[in-house]
Structure of ISSfl1 ORF1:
Amino acid sequence: MVHKSDSDELSALRAENARIIKPLLPPEPATPRAGRPWAEHRKIINGMFWVLCSGAPWRDLPERYGSWKTVYNRFNRWSKSGVINIIFNRLLSLLDANGFIDWSATALDGSNIRALKCAAGAQKNIPISTEIMGRVALAAVLAPKSIWQQTEVASR
């Protein structure tokens, strides 16, 4: 007997939700193509939800969702084409319209977002005079190497 795990319950796309997002999805091919048989969108979306809810790597996707590579490729294609954002925004607006989102309790943690050097706000390509560079280098050489050494010398 096969039992569904908690992540399966969370990741299952219900029929009413599938009806909401179906018009937002790319059309399924009318005629079969060469290669593997076409995997229906709902099965693939359930696989995407499983990976996103569980945090598992794509290769660990259970077989009941189809090939991990098919699920990954469709997720990647839909992400690049904007389909994922359209679905997210549609579902978010429906949840908000029905009062399921408490905006006062939302927060964004940016501590895991890496800032690039070019985004630091400093002006680029400004020549620095050799006089200034010389003073900075001299100050670095003459500066005490640690606070501990300063305290030891002062206490003698």
